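hiii, so i know i said id send this last week but things got crazy w the move. better late than never?? heres the sequnce for the chain we talked about at the cafe, plus the structure i predicted for it. fair warning i was half asleep when i ran it
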Amino acid sequence: MNRSLVAKSVAFGVALAAMFASPAACPAKKPKDIRRATVQVSDFGKLPDGSTVELYTLTNAKGSIAKIITFGARLTELWIPDHTGRKRDIVLGFDTLDGYVAKNPYFGAIVGRYGNRIAKGHFTLDGVDYSLAINNGPNALHGGLVGFDHRNWQAQPIEMQGGAAVKFSLHSPDGEENYPGNLDVSVTYTLTDENQLKLEYHATTDKPTILNLTNHSYFNLAGAGDGTILDEILYLNADQYTPTDPTLIPTGVIAPVDGTPYDFRKPTAIGARLDQLKAVGGYDINYVLNGQAGSLRLAARVKDPTSGREMEVWTTQPGVQLYTSNNLDGSVIGKHGIAYPRYAAFCLETQHYPDSPNHPNFPSVVLRPGQVYSEETVFKFSAK
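okay and structure toks below
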């Protein structure tokens, strides 16, 4: 049989099959979206002691991405779509490990043992006095000279449906930074297919200690390094706050926000009242969240009017620290060689209150043997 006859026979067979393959007999099937959430691991560099820092990349079914490194269990990138579907990285940080190892303002880190400040680095627990390193004016801040932000955590990917997750674990020995008790800590990051970044904190101890963990991510919903956050609109679910002395230590008073520049119960531009905060130069204050601590509830909502990105913060914690990156001054060179100016980002650090060990009227931060420290914070993203 010659080639032309073979070609005609094949063509006839295809046509004949098409005639009998009616839509009723062979209904058309819509293509399925087979994309799945994934976790990928790669090297992010080596520390001075030679240990390897790993980078975990979480990608959800919508293509949003969260990147976390084991050094400080830090969130280094978070790619979220705007109202057109365009994704941008919305957290400040560095392109390489060197920036995180050097002195930096805790970009993306898990801070502890005690997030925020303790007055004069001193507290008493069960009649025993403890003195901590002084690293913020006259006070102790974020766990000391080598806090959890400068420890290399262990990481384990978690198989799950509806998202991608990694569990970071750390052992803090008794006496580390002069905190009592052997402490075992874990923080699980989950990027869900609904564009929620969930952080679940757990810890146990073999001796009474104090503990206050938080994540110190710097957010700019327009995009990391894209101007300031002064026009972003903030709502805070808080009727009260904890006023501070000039060194940012709470006075012990729990005061109403009504009539103060700290009132964000109606959505307001973050920069609208900065002229009333000249002493500090911006916001660096703890809010007493409405609702029952221990239950997951709305703490804050922020919207960028240009990109349409919106972030809700839900937490079980009793408080949240609003910080508007007042100490950035252009000297910190971040991703892509961009200098971060003052007000380049905001932080919403869910937490127990600053200096709680020295204020009996504040929610307790004491963790005892047999107890399990358990807190949760969820960042929910959308675009309108």
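btw Confidence is low (pLDDT under 50) at residues 1-33. thought thatd interest u
miss u guys!!
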